[in-house]
Amino acid sequence: MKKVAYLFAILLMAAIGFQSCVDEDGAGVPAPKSMFMEANEYNVDLTNDEVQTLTVRWIDVENATYTVTLTNQGNDVTEELTNAVTKGELNVLSMDIPYAQLQAYVEKAELEGLLGCDFFINITGKPIDANQKTALSPEGSTVQATVHYVE
């Protein structure tokens, strides 16, 4: 009799556990992907004369267009990057940003010589088709990474 009671208790707990896995959309329907970057901070040595590149990676939510910009807190200088975006495995997108391009932004934004004045890489995803489920807001969602640079 104890075995039957234990079996019944185990089945009841399993049923409750499986019930908690069922989403409003039903079991087996995945939630839309959220956009996030591989890293939220990058250290860049702009004094290095070798040709170097910063590679930024983020998750492709598939129903979006992306805009990549450089900004800073010191002023309103914003630069939109039009570098090529490469699709990798597992729906990962990446963009290579040459150090020369980052140095040009630092000069344009007049951040040279300001210690501790970092700048930001912003990736904004805007939904393409409003009829498809997405984790992005209708106006677009932005993820940001801080670039700590050395002159």
How would you explain this protein's 3D organization?
With 151 residues, the chain is an alpha+beta fold. 20% of the residues lie in helices and 35% in strands. The strands form two sheets. Strands 1-8-7-3-4 form a five-stranded mixed sheet, with helices on one face. Strands 2-6-5 form a three-stranded antiparallel sheet. The longest helix has 20 residues. It is elongated and about 80 Å long. The mean pLDDT is 86.
Low-confidence blocks of residues? none
By secondary-structure content and strand pairing, the structural class works out as alpha+beta
Side-by-side strand order of the widest sheet: 1-8-7-3-4
Question: What is the helix/strand order?
Answer: HEEEEEEHEE
Which of globular, elongated, flat, extended, rod-shaped describes the shape?
elongated
Helix coverage percent of residues? 10-25%
Question: How many strands, what sense, and barrel or not for the largest sheet?
Answer: 5 strands, mixed
What is the mean pLDDT?
Answer: 86
Question: Could you tell me the number of beta strands?
Answer: 8
Number of helices: 2
Rg calc = 23 Å
Name the beta content range.
35-45%
Q: Whole-Å distance between the termini?
A: 77 Å
Features:
alpha+beta, three-stranded antiparallel sheet, five-stranded mixed sheet, 8 strands, 20% helix, single chain, 151 residues
